[in-house]
Amino acid sequence: MPVAGHSIPAVPAQPADLSVAPFAAVTAEPAALALTGATVRRGGQALLNDLTWRVEHSQRWVIIGANGAGKTTLLHLAAARTHPSSGTVEVLGERLGATDLAELRTRVGLSTVALAERVPDKELVRDVVITAAWSVVGRFREGYDEVDERRAYALLEQLGVNHLADRAYGTLSEGERKRVQIARALMTDPELLLLDEPAAGLDLAGREQLVARLSALANDPAAPALVLVTHHVEEIPPGFTHVLLLRQGAIVAQGPLLTTLTSANLSLTFGLPLRLTRTGQRFVARAS
User: Fold this and answer.
1) Domain contains 208
2) Is residue 39 a part of any domain in this protein?
């Protein structure tokens, strides 16, 4: 069982090659996510239409849109769970349709309601997290190394739920479950982390506790590229840098959060006059 995480073998130093031109081009690191003209059609209907979008490794993106805007479909593309009908999608430098998806998916952390619903209520919290190392839900006969055990506990501590490690998952509050799910998504040390409506169904206290944890993650320079889907601007954690606004499968606006998330753009996104206000790094939207 390989240890979770990534290691880069040392490369011995080489003598300078004076025959190389002094201004030789340096290859840039591939984006965490790059869509070019991506369209997804199902039953003759375009769920996503001609999306071009790029997520760099240092960025933290929020995707906002109404129900049916295409947010979940877009997340499935980003997670290499579905292919575009046309256009191209590159995840961590690998083009969908021309790479081993099983290998690629191990490099992407994903937290969704659908995955959470598969977790058995009797599963211990620590096992909910550690089983991500084998990409399974429900611990059986697979074995784990001590380093995996330590990582699972460290992630639970990072999300503030390490005291629940020996509790049954089904006994947790909804807010506690959300944080356990995010710890699981981080278990394989992903290079891209995708969170589908992590605050959905939480009460005010649960939402604020989760937003605080996600803010700490967003501000950690060692954290992977982050993409968070939400309906509500109130759920945007401080530290997120960019926003993508979707309506009916098309992009309304995209760019830096503080300049792109405006009352005008939000109103276009939801088809309703809205007034956006900001206090510090938190947002509130109301009908105007």
Assistant:
1) yes
2) no
Reading the chain (288 residues) residue by residue, the pLDDT tens digits are 443 443 333 333 444 343 344 444 445 789 999 999 999 999 889 999 999 999 999 999 999 999 999 999 999 999 999 999 999 999 999 999 999 998 898 899 999 888 888 888 999 999 999 988 767 777 766 677 788 889 999 999 999 999 999 999 999 999 999 999 999 999 999 999 999 999 998 999 999 999 999 999 999 999 999 999 999 999 999 999 999 999 999 999 999 999 999 999 999 999 999 999 999 999 999 998
Evaluate whether 101 touches 107 at the Cβ level (below 8 Å).
no
Is residue 208 within 8 Å of 282, Cβ to Cβ?
A: no
What is the token pair recorded at 208?
Answer: 């604020």
Residue 284 to residues 136, 236, 239, 287, Cα–Cα distance (Å): 38, 10, 16, 10
Instruction: Assign residue 167 the CATH number of its domain.
Output: 3.40.50.300
Phi-psi region of 249 (alpha: psi -120 to 50; beta: other; left: phi over 0): left
Domain that holds residue 199: 60-69+103-287
Structural domains in the chain (count): 1
Q: What's the first-to-final CA gap in the chain, in angstroms? A: 56
